[in-house]
């Protein structure tokens, strides 16, 4: 499917919103809990995973009988959440922990990120279906 101008605009605007939201929230979390462990990135990625689960349940799940609105999906998921969540920061911060001779924290970051993000997406999806899907 070739992206439409409306989809590209939705991704552009959503990307700006998501990037600013990530910068803001990860900064708040880092200042509150410290920067020796990437808590800000973890919170952002887990909350983003929960949000994408909810949106998938609302917009894509066959159980909801909702028609996926592609400009809406493009703006919210690809734009906002694609810019809000961050695999690149997660990767770099994990590498920094390894290079700082903290392999236990690096492994903890990988395990916690994977487990919590998968759980958040699953719970978000199930919650959306439970509340709105029938």
Automatic annotation (TrEMBL):
<comment type="function">
    <text>Fluoride-specific ion channel. Important for reducing fluoride concentration in the cell, thus reducing its toxicity.</text>
</comment>
<feature type="transmembrane region" description="Helical">
    <location>
        <begin position="6"/>
        <end position="25"/>
    </location>
</feature>
<keyword id="KW-0915">Sodium</keyword>
<comment type="similarity">
    <text>Belongs to the fluoride channel Fluc/FEX (TC 1.A.43) family.</text>
</comment>
<feature type="transmembrane region" description="Helical">
    <location>
        <begin position="110"/>
        <end position="132"/>
    </location>
</feature>
<dbReference type="GO" id="GO:0005886">
    <property type="term" value="C:plasma membrane"/>
</dbReference>
<dbReference type="Pfam" id="PF02537">
    <property type="entry name" value="CRCB"/>
</dbReference>
<keyword id="KW-0407">Ion channel</keyword>
<protein>
    <recommendedName>
        <fullName>Fluoride-specific ion channel FluC</fullName>
    </recommendedName>
</protein>
<dbReference type="InterPro" id="IPR003691">
    <property type="entry name" value="FluC"/>
</dbReference>
<feature type="transmembrane region" description="Helical">
    <location>
        <begin position="37"/>
        <end position="61"/>
    </location>
</feature>
<keyword id="KW-1133">Transmembrane helix</keyword>
<feature type="transmembrane region" description="Helical">
    <location>
        <begin position="73"/>
        <end position="98"/>
    </location>
</feature>
<keyword id="KW-0813">Transport</keyword>
<keyword id="KW-0472">Membrane</keyword>
<feature type="binding site">
    <location>
        <position position="82"/>
    </location>
    <ligand>
        <name>Na(+)</name>
    </ligand>
</feature>
<keyword id="KW-0479">Metal-binding</keyword>
<dbReference type="GO" id="GO:0140114">
    <property type="term" value="P:cellular detoxification of fluoride"/>
</dbReference>
<keyword id="KW-0812">Transmembrane</keyword>
<feature type="binding site">
    <location>
        <position position="85"/>
    </location>
    <ligand>
        <name>Na(+)</name>
    </ligand>
</feature>
<dbReference type="GO" id="GO:0046872">
    <property type="term" value="F:metal ion binding"/>
</dbReference>
<keyword id="KW-0406">Ion transport</keyword>
<keyword id="KW-1003">Cell membrane</keyword>
<keyword id="KW-0997">Cell inner membrane</keyword>
<dbReference type="GO" id="GO:0062054">
    <property type="term" value="F:fluoride channel activity"/>
</dbReference>
């Amino acid at each position: 499917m070739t992206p439409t101008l409306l989809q590209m605009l939705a991704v552009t605007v959503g990307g700006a919103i998501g990037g600013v939201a990530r910068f803001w929230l990860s900064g708040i979390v880092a200042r509150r809990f410290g920067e020796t462990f990437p808590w800000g990135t973890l919170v952002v990625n887990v909350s983003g995973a929960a949000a994408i689960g909810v949106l998938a349940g609302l917009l894509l799940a066959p159980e909801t009988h909702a028609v996926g609105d592609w400009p809406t999906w493009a703006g919210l998921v690809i734009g906002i959440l694609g810019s809000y969540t961050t695999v690149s920061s997660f990767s770099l911060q994990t590498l920094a922990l390894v290079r700082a001779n903290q392999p236990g924290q690096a492994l903890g970051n990988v395990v916690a990120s994977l487990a919590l993000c998968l759980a958040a997406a699953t719970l978000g999806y199930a919650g959306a279906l439970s509340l709105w899907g029938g």
